[in-house]
Amino acid sequence: MGNLDVTQGEKYPLPEDQLEILYQIAKKYGDPERENGADTPGAQIRINPFPAFGSADHYLNSMDFLLGDAERRTAKLKKISAELSRLEKAVFGKQGDRGTLPVMKNMRQYYAYLVLESYYHFKMRELNWKLQEEDPTDDLLKEYVDAYMTQCMPFRKQEDDFHHAFLKQPKGTPKEEAEWYRKGIRFYSACLDHQKILLDITRRYTVEYLKIPKNKYDERKPLVEEFWLKAGGLMKYMTDRDAYDLTDNRREMFAVDWMDIWPTAGYPVPNAGDSVFVRAVDEAPLGMSSPFCSISPPALQGALERMQRYQEELAKLSKGLNKLTPPPKILPKYAFDVDPVEIERTAIP
């Protein structure tokens, strides 16, 4: 028995109030004297809360964590799947003695569990349809792109103008070279200030964005916990070890499959290649502010690397300008504050 193919808007074929029949069957054909405690609070599943990233930067630096979580989840599902194959052979591949059929225990409880599992798959899909219809992600990302590009477009135009002026400035005379340094400082200072503003916009919307996958995760969590205990109410009457383990692994597969962080906390790049993006590049080809709106580690890393590069360029240009036009020495207010020889040296041109 697999999941019943119920599409959005349809009702599950078995009314919820009739699911009690499953427990009556499991108990009637089980061994109440040998209950295994599968539905007690102590047997409840422990589902980790949605990650507390703490800040936008922690989330934007979380690629290793989320990839690791996805890899652990994939490995877990692979292990469960292999165990299910082994247990299915152990339960359903039994051979009877010559001339007799094999005895298969706890099949009523097992098939009652399959009905329950099918019902909760339906409930989970129904919840996901609801979450999808109410999902504010697209509206939030549109707001983010608008806020980002409203700043980015004029930033790029100013950077383009400053960049052209910097590149065209001759350096033939000391005066011209000093002006070249000043225009370079003006250009990279603007780039650095602009990048800080754009990064703050991304950080602000990252905090809002994280509330959405957390809400989805938090709504799925109690449904999985409810299913886990209700499944335990059927499993507690199972005395065949292989049948119990088969059911338990199916239950774990359900939980691991539905409680996934990665799809709900991925990294959107909502405006790559759209008309505003293209116009930003075409109108200011030498602008340095990135037109990519991205709540992602690569975007954060790119922004931080650009800021570091701008700071390094500013340091080099400032050093060069100071060598070319050293600041005048300031004499102390009182002559006794300095060596008389130094005063004489400073006074002599």
Would you give an account of this structure?
- The protein is mostly helical and 349 residues long.
- It folds into 2 domains: 16-46 and 54-137 and 215-264, no CATH class; 138-204 and 280-325, no CATH class.
- It is 66% helix and 0% strand.
- It is built from 10 helices and no strands.
- The protein has helices spanning 20-28, 56-60, 63-92, 107-134, 137-168, 174-235, 241-258, 275-283, 297-324, 340-347.
- The longest helix is centred in the middle third of the chain and has 62 residues, at 174-235.
- The protein starts with 19 loop residues before the first helix and ends with a helix.
Order of helices and strands: HHHHHHHHHH
**Dominant shape:** elongated
Rg, nearest Å? 34 Å
Overall number of domains: 2
Largest sheet features? none
The unreliable regions are: none
Mean pLDDT: 87
Percentage beta strand: under 5%
SS class: mainly alpha
Instruction: Kindly report how far apart the N and C termini lie.
Output: 100 Å
Give the helix proportion (percent range): 55-70%
Number of helices: 10
How many strands in all? 0
Question: Any chance you could write out the topology, listing elements then pairs?
Answer:
Blueprint: H1 20-28, H2 56-60, H3 63-92, H4 107-134, H5 137-168, H6 174-235, H7 241-258, H8 275-283, H9 297-324, H10 340-347
Helix pairs in contact: 1-4, 3-7, 4-6, 4-7, 5-6, 5-8, 6-7, 6-9
